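Duplicate of #3305? Posting structure anyway:
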């Protein structure tokens, strides 16, 4: 295969849906060999089949990224199958403790405002802990266990999916915002510690993107209108907008870029009114 990721073995966590799926397809278009790692094996397999139908190579793995043994198994399986790991996008994430990623239309039916524990004053420790376990500890474990394999070969590139919510507080989402702010700092710590192994670590902080995760909100026309009004480029983002940023950071074009965060957010946080 030729392309900007030719022959680069790439693990994408959360690869079964939304931003992760878009990364799998975009990286495969550029010649990468893909490991689709997700909690949902059925949907991960569907994505690896999509890659195969494009003429690419992919495997699907069932992984809960908050469980160390499963993440270690993921990294080992990637090396057993493809010989090494060159790139990793840590996209597995949840918006709140009870979130289950589904088709966006089905997700749209799940009204997040039914939840009783959104505000900090009502937040249960178990809800808080689950979001931190998946969104922060899961990303840390992914970075650590993938980096161990990369360090034994030629190094590599890791991209962590953060969010504009790691920079701007969102009402009713303290656990999510704190987890994403943590991902940003983890990225900077990883960059300075892993540089000696030839490993670059960067983050991407999406704005409002149309996926299953935003499905409950994007089915609300008034909500969408308000978000478009506050986004200078006057649209919501698509998963491919984020995949293209991840592709750049994982490719050799970014060989001198580490410890950075890119916000593909249509100008949202650059606008002082937001
Ligand atoms: N959609 C947005 O507007 C938006 C904005 C900013 C950041 N993000 C971040 O982008 C990332 C991807 O989200 P998305 O919008 O594509 O959502 P999504 O629900 O479409 O995809 C998330 C995927 O992660 C998987 N997953 C969840 N928990 C997991 C776990 N413990 N182990 C392994 N896989 C797990 C899900 O099964 C799903 O396939 C998340 O980290 C999210 O926080 C999304």
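Output from current build:
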């Amino acid at each position: 295969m030729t392309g900007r990721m030719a022959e680069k073995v790439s693990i994408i966590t959360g690869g079964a849906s939304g931003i992760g799926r878009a990364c799998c397809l975009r990286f495969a278009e550029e010649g990468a060999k893909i490991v689709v790692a997700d909690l949902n094996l059925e949907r991960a397999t569907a994505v690896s089949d999509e890659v195969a139908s494009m003429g690419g190579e992919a495997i699907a793995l069932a992984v809960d990224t908050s469980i160390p043994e499963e993440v270690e198994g993921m990294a080992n399986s990637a090396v057993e199958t493809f010989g090494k790991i060159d790139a990793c996008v840590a996209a597995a994430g949840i918006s709140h403790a009870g979130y289950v990623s589904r088709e966006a239309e089905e997700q749209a039916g799940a009204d997040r405002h039914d939840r009783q524990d959104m505000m900090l004053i009502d937040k249960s420790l178990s809800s808080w802990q689950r979001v931190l376990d998946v969104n922060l500890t899961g990303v840390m474990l992914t970075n650590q266990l993938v980096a161990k394999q990369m360090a034994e070969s030629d190094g590599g590139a890791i991209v962590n999916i953060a969010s504009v919510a790691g920079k701007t507080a969102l009402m009713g989402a303290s656990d999510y915002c704190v987890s994403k702010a943590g991902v940003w700092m983890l990225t900077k710590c990883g960059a300075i510690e892993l540089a000696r192994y030839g490993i670059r670590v960067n983050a991407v902080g999406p704005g409002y993107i149309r996926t299953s995760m935003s499905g409950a909100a994007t089915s609300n026309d008034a909500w969408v209108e308000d978000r478009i009004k506050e986004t200078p480029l006057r649209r919501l983002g698509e998963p491919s907008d984020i995949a293209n940023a991840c592709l750049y950071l994982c490719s050799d074009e970014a060989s001198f870029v580490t410890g950075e965060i890119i916000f593909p957010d249509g100008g949202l946080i650059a606008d002082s009114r937001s």
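Confirmed duplicate; merging threads. The chain has one domain: 9-269. Residues 13-14, 16-20, 38-40, 63-66, 91-94, 101, 134, 138, 161, 163, 206, 208-209, 211-214 surround nicotinamide-adenine-dinucleotide (CB under 6 Å).
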